[in-house]
Specification:
It holds the Pfam family NUDIX-like. One of its GO terms (molecular function) is metal ion binding. One of its GO terms (biological process) is NADP+ catabolic process. Its EC number is 3.6.1.22. It is a single chain. This protein has 5 helices and 16 strands. The strands form 5 sheets. It has a 4-stranded mixed β-sheet with strand order 4-1-6-5, covered by helices on one side. A 4-stranded mixed β-sheet has the order 13-11-15-14, with helices on both faces. A 3-stranded antiparallel β-sheet has the order 3-2-7, covered by helices on one side. Helix 4 packs across helix 5.
């Protein structure tokens, strides 16, 4: 079996700021930093403003003297300033002297520096969770944010709820030599192919999930499942855990759960050519288009294709 590692850290897995988790419970210290803090605005479509390759950060004090209840604490920059995020309309600071544009994190993230990537991924995950966690799953009581947005409290029972993360596996199946499987979901555009993924079930390990999901989706029995890396995918709250596994090209495909429209074995050279065309947004009419750089799928595919 041809083993390999990821060549680079997936884009949304980069670390560029101190998460400063101690400040989530030391609220006085967190609030004390508010007058000099920076603020990331994320709109209802999970878009942010970017300028010169960085997420645009406003002055936190511009929205009030204290953090509003719905603000979430993201961490601390290297210069010590705190960073918070809110769900709000996008507004550039008045003193910004470089062009700004709206960025949809789902479509691209390669323009971000490490700090921006971490802040935007964390803010998006937390704000999406708050949007869907306003009532207790136990008794239906309205909950309130506490711990700088990292928890919600049921005032009737005192029960805390913490941000949900839904783990999912994503796996490149290859033959140990020169071919790998790529597949297209039924809801995807024509010619867009990627590697296989699925959510982990209760009582299931990541490795067992890989074997089950690939059998369900394309009918292949895989072996030698090996871990590669992981990446948050805050749409709304997933964690993608990457693997590669060995499959037999002589096995026939069978699409058992209805999610996959087609699958095929592609050679390393075919995949390299597709990578050279860019991603699925390309105007190319080639048979094979691949996912964009923001996804761990792209990094896994690129790392496998780079092997000699």
């Amino acid at each position: 079996m041809s083993s390999f590692r990821l060549r680079q850290v997936p884009l949304l897995s980069r670390v560029g700021a101190d998460r400063a988790d101690a400040l989530r419970t030391d609220i006085d210290a967190a609030v004390a930093g508010w007058p000099d803090a920076l603020l990331l605005r994320v709109d209802r479509r999970n878009q942010v403003l970017i300028s010169a390759g960085r997420a645009v950060l406003n002055s936190a004090a511009s929205i009030g003297a204290r953090p509003p209840e719905h603000a979430v604490f993201l961490g601390r920059l290297h210069d010590g300033r705190h960073v918070w995020a809110v769900r709000a309309e996008l507004e550039p600071p008045d003193d910004l002297d470089t062009p700004v544009e709206v960025l949809d994190l789902r479509r691209t993230g390669d323009v971000f520096d490490d700090v921006s990537a971490q802040l935007v991924a964390t803010a998006t995950a937390l704000l999406n969770w708050h949007d869907s966690a306003r009532f207790s799953p136990v008794d239906g009581a309205a909950t309130t944010p506490i711990k700088a947005g990292w928890s919600r409290l049921d005032p009737l029972t005192g029960r805390e709820e913490f941000p949900r993360i839904d783990p999912a596996v994503i796996c490149l199946v290859h033959d140990g030599h020169d071919r790998a499987v790529l597949a297209r979901q039924t809801v995807w555009p024509q010619r867009l192919f990627s590697i296989l993924a699925g959510f982990v079930e209760a009582g299931e390990s990541f490795e067992s999930c890989v074997v089950r999901e690939i059998a369900e989706e394309i009918g292949l029995a895989v072996t030698d499942v090996e871990y590669l890396g992981s990446q948050p995918w805050p749409f709304p709250r997933s964690l993608m855990v990457g693997f590669h596994a060995l499959g037999d090209p002589e096995q026939e495909f069978s699409f058992n759960d209805g999610e996959i429209a087609e699958a095929a074995w592609f050679t390393r050279e075919e995949i390299r050519e597709a990578l050279g065309r860019g991603d699925w947004s390309s105007a190319s009419d080639a048979r094979l288009l691949l996912p964009g750089s923001i996804s761990i799928a792209r990094e896994i595919i690129e790392s496998w294709a780079a092997q000699d």
